[in-house]
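Tokens for Cupin-like domain-containing protein. Go.
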Amino acid sequence: MSPNPSAITEIDCERSLRLRGDGSQPLPDEILTSTVPLVLRGLVADWPLVRAARASAHEAEAYLRRFHRDATVLATHAVPEAGGRIFYNDDLSGFNFSAQMVRFDQVLEALRAHLDDAAPPTFYVGSTTVDTCLPGLRAENDLNFGGREPLASIWIGNRTRIPAHYDVPDNLACVAAGRRRFTLFPPEQLKNLYVGPLDFTPAGQSVSLVDLERPDLERFPLFAEALRHAQSAELGPGDALFIPSMWWHHVEGLEPFNILINYWWRQSPAWMDTPFNTLMLALMTLRDLPPAQRAAWKEIFRHYVFDSDGGEAAHIPPAARSVLAPLDDTGARMLRAQILKRLNR
């Protein structure tokens, strides 16, 4: 991969932020509202799970087993020839992996059985709610988000490569075992990432079709420009990475046994739908309009959405502003009902 990505800005949590590595102190707002990625070295260095992982993969596995009851998880399996890459098949008609619901402890057993393989099959469990899968784990391994209530998920597997994708929420990813390499691209690099299908994806999010390990610049020439804007960091047990909303990130598990716990939250009211719904509707209603009409709608969206400062309805009496008034949960439910009625006509 060339040119080499630049380093993500790093913060030593103990020295710079005076944060203990047990996660008990509230995280500063300047971290949780950052618009650029930040490596937080040692943020969870004193989690019991991290301490177990630093001793060995076997101790980390034993620690996890303390919290497992009978939960099942969606486990991904790929043959050794996939090289850990969770991706499509050759013609994008399907995927290069299989997935099925299994007991969580069966995943641990499969990982243990292949710890010493030079070219193991891929085993991977992604985005699984911690409290459901391992009840009680967060009582000993958690972070203090103040008034925020993020969704905490666990990711576990051996050597894996997850293609570049974005998430709508902000993301704080904590490496609890093994090592992970993150390569990030800012949102404006979308046009250079050669993104695959929007509605047929390996794991729910659209992904870049470029293999970051061996980028084919003849097939994907614009990716060279994306690489010039890439940022990267390698994280070990106890380190964390803040990934701002909408930043594309490629994630690699670098060891035979890797555990990551991440937290997702949105800086928006709970009643707001995902903007992805707007994109899908726009593909249906705007993309294929004649150019002049598309330009007119672009101006409407600019006026009412992207450049909105609250003044676009100032000339309308407050009681008559309807959907142009500030929205709340009740207003959002009413608007959603109107939209569904229009779609179902």
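The first strand starts at residue 6 and ends at 7.
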